[in-house]
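Quick illustration for those who missed Monday's session on complexes.
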Amino acid sequence: MATFLLDMSPREMADHLGEALRVYVSAMGYPPGTERQRAAMWLEHTRRNGWKAVAAFRSGADSAPGHLGGDTTVSEAGTAAAQSADAELLGVAYGYCGAPDQWWQQQVVLGLQRRNLPEPDIARLMTSYFELTELHVVPSAQGSGLGEALARRLLSGRPEANVLLSTPETSGEANRAWRLYRRLGFTDVMRGHHFTGDPRPFAILGRPLPLP
Ligand SMILES: CC(C)(COP(=O)(O)OP(=O)(O)OC[C@H]1O[C@@H](n2cnc3c(N)ncnc32)[C@H](O)[C@@H]1OP(=O)(O)O)[C@@H](O)C(=O)NCCC(=O)NCCS
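Prediction with coenzyme A bound:
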């Protein structure tokens, strides 16, 4: 058994969309069926500027490339599908370059304005950032460093100045997502933020790129 990471092209994301959404739903503990509501949005995201995705697979084959913990390699174009064909998807992460026409950026800017952050500070934050949109590992594979490996690979070599993300507020920051983001050096951009249509409070976290 080997666990390996692969960068995914938009086509490969489309091919693995059902599995990737099942990873997302099980990791987040959402009700079955949530996948169907998200599919069109995840596909639309693949067309955004700077979109990048990384997946973690477990394969029965000993010859799988880039074993986790070793020297993980970026698969050559056209080979990822073959490498992952008989492998189980354990985790997925993706994001893209933030832009003013995106709902997420508009919501975050509104929140920062309501908190009276000066416009130059908002501009400095929002002019050049990678939005880490999704990061999920199936519950059975959590707690062995896979999430951190996905995040590090996703954020490596990015041209943006910052990385930003939103994550649900949790009492005492007591979950793996919060521990991971703090370990990677993310700091508070805004706490207790409410996105339109979602009753849950979110934290917006960020840090400069690259990661150390
Ligand atoms: C958040 C999430 C992606 C993190 O991924 P993960 O693989 O579980 O976690 P990490 O990569 O950070 O690994 C952390 C754990 O692995 C351990 N670990 C780290 N490197 C390791 C290694 N090389 N070997 C073994 N264990 C290791 C750490 O000690 C840590 O254990 P602990 O949390 O029990 O203290 C994952 O837990 C998840 O999908 N959670 C639910 C969905 C979610 O909240 N997503 C984010 C929404 S914004």
